[in-house]
Amino acid sequence: MRAACAALSGVIAGFSALAVAELAAAVVRPEAGPVTAVGSAVIDRTPPALKDFAVRNFGTNDKLVLELGILAILALFAVAVGLLALRHRIAGSAAVLVFGAVGAVAAVGRPEGRVSDALPSVVGALAGAGVLYLLSGRLYPARSYGERPAGGFDRRGFVVAAGVAAVASAGAGLLGRRLTSAVQAGAEASRRDLKLPAPASPAPAVPAGAELGIRGLSPFVTPNKDFYRVDTALVVPRVDAGAWRLRIHGKGVSRPVTLSLRELMGRGAVERDITLTCVSNEVGGPYVGNARWLGVRLADLLREAGVRPPSEGGRADQLVARSVDGMTIGTPVEDVMDGREALLAFGMNGEPLPFTHGFPVRMVVPGLYGYVSACKWIKDIELTTFDAYDAYWVKRSWSRRAPIKTQARIDTPRPFASPKAGTVPVAGVAWAQHRGITRVEVRVDGGPWHPARLAPGAGRDVWRQWVWEWPATPGSHTLEVRATDGAGATQTARRAGTVPDGATGWHSVVVDVT
Length: 514
Ligand SMILES: Nc1nc2c(c(=O)[nH]1)N[C@H]1C(S)=C(S)[C@@H](COP(=O)(O)O)O[C@H]1N2
Ligand SMILES: [Mo]
Description:
Layout: H1 2-28, H2 34-45, H3 48-58, H4 62-87, H5 89-108, H6 119-137, H7 155-192, E1 245-250, E2 257-260, H8 261-265, E3 270-277, E4 288-297, H9 298-304, E5 318-323, E6 328-332, H10 333-337, E7 343-348, E8 351-352, E9 362-364, E10 378-384, E11 407-412, E12 422-431, E13 437-444, E14 450-451, E15 453-454, E16 464-472, E17 475-485, E18 507-513
Parallel strand pairs: 1-10
Antiparallel strand pairs: 1-2, 3-4, 4-7, 5-6, 5-10, 7-8, 7-9, 11-12, 12-16, 13-14, 13-17, 15-16, 17-18
Keywords: Membrane, Signal, Transmembrane, Transmembrane helix
InterPro entries: Ig_E-set (IPR014756), OxRdtase_Mopterin-bd_dom (IPR000572), OxRdtase_Mopterin-bd_sf (IPR036374)
Signal peptide: 1-21
């Protein structure tokens, strides 16, 4: 009984610590909460293979899994600390403080960490240690008067104290949540009220027929709500559009600039369809999407700031974009300034960027994987060199440069589908951004390649739908697809994993025709 109560007091102390930390984090900033801070520190230190495993198996839920894992571990330790406090009251409380120190170090050690980020963990740990000290005190036999209640300790006293601590902590936690959402409400209002400018240069018309209209085929434009999301943010940054600024500075910048969103949007917006792809996308994977972006040409801004690309004698060959959450993304200056539509985007499919996709402004560069081009929640652009600086993912063994590799994906039929014998449309999408797709071929069971019908192209930065009418015969069959890009290169059959610069190989699907 005493042991059970000791375990319970550990759990309540842990709960108090987290709840009070949540309240403090609401005042400091949400990212500084201990669970988020430790989770982010884990993400920062996750080896690429494990990160890819998590993205692959949990998808966008990888972060939820991580936070639940941390909470489960904390719960176990809370029980242990509660039991420890039964032996050594002081040692138990000291152990809680050690956990607080871990949270504090994790929070301050983040790329954008400040000393004040330690506060939530420290305050929370003090509260947790105090609660444990008080509760475990109730579990010791009453010494005075020699009058021992049955069971060796004051049960009523314990239950009352535990109840008070639990309720007070819940109150603190809820208040913290309220405060956080009040702070975020400002950013949400700034997004709701944002009026996007009309494009001075509208997107070229999408040719009729770009959408083949086949069941099971990915739509030509990926709706925002279905657009894949890949980032390291445990708490989605909610930036107030009015307070947002972008700074451009560094090597070869003769006229550094700082821009507000209003100034950026007043520069004459261009609208372009650009297909985004993640380097963590396996052959046949889901981390690719096509959207209509609204923004300004980054190259124009850079020229005005005095930047010249290396091919014109510029000193900086790398552009490092920094986000409000400390992500760093390094892009070749030459690519940004070679005439392609590299954008600082504020609109996505007709609305302001969703918070999850980088509100208020992100980068989009056709032809480069997201981790070397597509910085969300951007706040700073520094011109430097690849020799002088390695960005976030490069420090974690991904390549410095990573153009998107040519890929074709079979969307329908689905793996292990059982279509009826007869004509079965085999269809999907193919992409080779900034080179374009010129041919897609399909083969069955390793037989001859059949040319697929390509939907009319919407430009070389955009994926293309394709279909091949398959005269399917009963039995189990393997379908394979390969694409050829605008430079005439056909996708290699050689299978390679995503690390360090993107997967290769042909997508294949096994189906059972009935
Ligand atoms: N701030 C920030 N920007 C980021 C990332 C990130 O983790 N943090 N991830 C990058 C990666 S790896 C990709 S593939 C794209 C994904 O953009 P999306 O989530 O809008 O699809 O964003 C890029 N920009
Ligand atoms: Mo990515």
